[in-house]
Amino acid sequence: MIKKFWWIAVFVVGLSLVLLFQYQKYRVAPKADLASLSCIDTSGKTVDLTQLKGKKTLLTFFATWCGDCLLEMKLLNDIKKTSLQDIDVIAISDERMNKICSFMQKKNYPFTFLKLQTAFANIHINAIPVTYLINTKGEVVYSKVGAINWKDPSVVSFTEETLK
User: Fold this and answer.
1) How much is the pTM?
2) Cβ–Cβ under 8 Å, residues 117 and 93
3) Residues 43-93 pLDDT 10s
4) Comparing C-alpha atoms, which of 163, 159, 145, 158 is closest to residue 69?
5) Where are the domains positioned within the chain?
6) 31-162, CATH topology level
7) Whole-angstrom Cα distance, residue 89 to residue 110?
8) Cα 145-149-153 angle, rounded to 5 deg
9) Is 149 within 8 Å of 155 (Cβ atoms)?
10) Distance (Å, whole) CA 24 – CA 122
11) Contact yes or no for 137/36 (Cβ under 8 A)
């Protein structure tokens, strides 16, 4: 009886560790080290993301095929017409540049689009979209994995307050 209890206990602890690892991997945004991100803009020029100091910035990692990313970008574009106008939006993808440019031209969003020079997995992004809010000091003050509902006034207020 005691041996059976120990096997069950070991199984439960092991399962808990696996679930915790999965949660950390897919629901918690990785630490954003802007200095280590190698990106290029749509004209092929290298972009130094540490130059974001002095600007309120929303940085989002997305893919053109990602349904949640597309919905979030549409809502963000809509809300930028009335709120959050002083916040720069930078959208980063690890897809081919021609795919990013085609998406950018098709959607005509007032965002800066960049190509990450490596795969998302290499910077520990395992789920998209991932959003970071960066204050005027260049510090990441908020991060989230998953789509954000930009139609929700409390989300807009939270963003404005966080980036003050």
Assistant:
1) 0.81
2) no
3) 999 999 888 888 999 999 999 999 999 999 999 999 888 888 899 999 999
4) 145
5) 1-30, 31-162
6) Glutaredoxin (3.40.30)
7) 8
8) 130
9) yes
10) 16
11) no
